[in-house]
Amino acid sequence: MGLTKTENFTEAQNELAKMLKALAHPARIAIIEHLIKANACIGTDLVEVLGLAQPTTSQHLRELKEAGLIKGTIEGTSMNYCIDQVKWKQYADKLNAFFTPVNFSESCC
Amino acid sequence: MGLTKTENFTEAQNELAKMLKALAHPARIAIIEHLIKANACIGTDLVEVLGLAQPTTSQHLRELKEAGLIKGTIEGTSMNYCIDQVKWKQYADKLNAFFTPVNFSESCC
DNA sequence: TTTATTAATCGTAATATTGCAATATAATAA
DNA sequence: TTATTATATTGCAATATTACGATTAATAAA
Question: What does the pLDDT read at residue B47?
Fold first, then answer.
């Protein structure tokens, strides 16, 4: 069906899945990495960096924006994108909490 | 096209995206959480836990197995699933490295 | 043997995602 | 005003994902 049965799961589970999904594409990873690395925020050489068409790049940027991971400010005709560091920290914390559970019961297989 | 242009990105970027994708579904999050919480490894009450059909559950389990996150051992007619703790730690480390970059250039937007 | 029981696989329908060309929008430059 | 530049949106084609019924395979129980 292609349609996730979100009603079967907790809000926390759905949210975590959504967070992971927002980053589950190499282009979006590449965008984030580039924004972290760049000492200045970026107009859009991002199209060049990714090697994807401008509309495709714009779409990935929108997904990251919708996830709250990046912000964009207008600068003339172009856009300055950068990481939303507050949201980024929230992501890091939530994922860290998920990946380092308090008690791992000893492996039985 | 629905087909990711992996050739545009580095191996590390593609791998990280794949890792995130393996967990980017609430059912797979739920499976992992249940396997962590359960003091014993699980036959498959997982079908009940998820509230999804048996083939659907099996499919999600396969994806997690292919990602290396879980292992299964045969026990009679049933299967015992559990987290692969070595792989799990690798995941935690890689994601942690991604989310806590050494130098965040100060925000400019 | 026959009959459950459990889990994987196959086939398929419905929806989602990825990517791009074409177009639209909006701000600047000439 | 008319370009030019940068970005977003629309529409569409191709592939991927999610879910399930039906079937298969393999062990256990009768």
Answer: 96
